[in-house]
Amino acid sequence: MQLLWLVIAIVLFVIEAAVPGLVCIWFGVAAVVSMIVSFFVESFAVQMIVFIIASGLLLLSTRGLVKKFMKAGEEKTNADRFIGQDAIVIETIDNLKNTGRVSIYGFEWKASALDGESIAEGSVVTIRAIKGVTARVVQKKVQ
């Protein structure tokens, strides 16, 4: 049985190396644990139970920690500095026509209105979010 668990562990580690992100490293480690147990216990059922329990414990105890270190989720970019800043509309923003551009600090961005309203060229807007290459804006209220 030791050879079976070793082969399973190697296959899982190869898959882990070939696939982006953490997919099956916990199961590979659990297979190694089951291989060690197989030196002391001959029952395949017991080895399988150890594999399942070890997989679950490893997955639950380390996945969140590992994901935090791998920085899963949205990556911050330099574009985030524009959020909350005012920009000038240089092409009328019309979500239905998929038109609109804004200029901020010399940079031009494709723009769309968060509220769906059309915003005329020359208006001042506030950038509320950046989604891909599009600035999501709201028209600045004149005081």
Structure description:
A five-stranded mixed barrel has the order 1-2-3-5-4. The mean pLDDT is 88. It is built from three helices and five strands, in the order H-H-H-E-E-E-E-E. The termini are far apart. By secondary structure, the protein is α+β, with helices and mostly antiparallel strands. It has helices spanning 2-18, 25-38, 44-69; strands spanning 86-94, 99-104, 107-113, 124-131, 134-139. It folds into two domains: 2-69, no CATH class; 78-139, OB fold (Dihydrolipoamide Acetyltransferase, E2P) (Beta Barrel), CATH 2.40.50.
Q: Biggest β-sheet: count, sense, barrel?
A: 5 strands, mixed, barrel
Cα-atom Rg, whole angstroms? 27 Å
Structural class: alpha+beta
List how many beta strands DSSP finds: 5
Q: Sketch the topology as an H/E string, one letter per element.
A: HHHEEEEE
